[in-house]
């Protein structure tokens, strides 16, 4: 457990020194679409698709394995063993392949006796050993879950793996997944690069909107090196409309959430690709200022979200959670602009600019849809 401020400061400096998470991570994770049905063929083909479809060039770099990649039991030396039936080449070979594409490989473990699927061991009590194993395989990212944890506080379990990763000899992004149970935004910046603020998302409007709200209350704690995580993207998995997925992607980008694609990118349709490949929306997420946008105004089901960007710009989302088209207005006083400011308003989904806008911006927004702007003072 982290004992003293000195230790925390040292760990925090080390986490920042690893250069990871200066902007939110972008990539893909197997869980939302494939659950336990992952294998090395999927990992290689997803890496291929990430490059060939142009997503890698937009910043999507991590190819992340989630649960179910290992055998149920450790070997005689206590090491994790990749599942022979699905990863016959082990993990290092697919990691090398992913790296050859200019991408990074992520892996999954759990701060407990077993992972959430109960099909493989957790890393509780094996932190140093597993961190060194991951490093030897060329792993770049660890998602660390919270199941089967013997009722030990996350504040005790997670720092042990954090230190083990720092000792592993490799820079590994550390993603805490304790589901927001002990308000990790208030303590995890000394431990990892991102922390879940919510329970798992599912592919529905109600789940997505509730994750957005639960994550929003912690906005002030996020920044370069450490991000709030409202869970991975469901865009393209079929449970929401394209309109709803546009809102999902817009709010995650504005909230500086990790942008981890959760669909099958090998076979995604054109509408899904158009959402995930919007370079202007991605640029809001990856802005170097690193300030999480948040909900600044609510009129019943109509919401204004906003946050500052570098260069004195402001990102704004007008989000209609209601069931019919409505006009939503964002006033300069609500979004952090001087009342006298004159701005150019760039519509990030229409890719059009309205010049010399004064005082407010208004738009008719369809049910469950959102408009997203970058406001640049003249």
UniProtKB/TrEMBL annotation:
Molecular functions (GO terms) = alpha-galactosidase activity
Top-level taxon of the source organism:
Eukaryota
Quote the cellular component terms of the Gene Ontology held in the record: plant-type cell wall
Q: Which GO terms describe its biological process?
A: carbohydrate metabolic process
Keywords (A to Z) from UniProt: Disulfide bond, Glycosidase, Hydrolase, Signal
Q: CDD domains of this UniProt entry? A: GH27
Signal listed as a keyword? yes
Reaction catalysis annotation: Hydrolysis of terminal, non-reducing alpha-D-galactose residues in alpha-D-galactosides, including galactose oligosaccharides, galactomannans and galactolipids
**InterPro entries for the chain:** Aldolase_TIM, GH, Glyco_hydro_27, Glyco_hydro_27/36_CS, Glyco_hydro_b, Melibiase_C
Q: Which PANTHER family match?
A: ALPHA-GALACTOSIDASE 2, ALPHA-GALACTOSIDASE/ALPHA-N-ACETYLGALACTOSAMINIDASE
Q: What is this protein called?
A: Alpha-galactosidase
